[in-house]
Fold this sequence. Notes:
There is one protein chain. The protein is mainly alpha-helical. The chain has one domain (3-82). The chain has five helices and no strands. The longest helix has 21 residues, at 3-23. It starts with a helix and ends with a helix.
Amino acid sequence: MSELASFHLNLHTAVKARLDIVADHAFRDRDSSAHLEALKSAAARLDSLVATLPAATDPTLRHYLERQSYTKALSWLEAALLE
């Protein structure tokens, strides 16, 4: 696996984790404080990866991530990982 593909895989995992936490309404309703902490943690991990995007990052993916269009970024990453 190339370094860029490995980065894409890590980024995919981070984007999916953030989206999953946002969508977990049962967790939020059950323990809003823990949900918020989990969301902060997932967001920090994703922000860290976005801050270190390789220069070779596709401009469309960069745009999605910078605009926090995470559903679009996830779709882009899934398509890229299938190639």
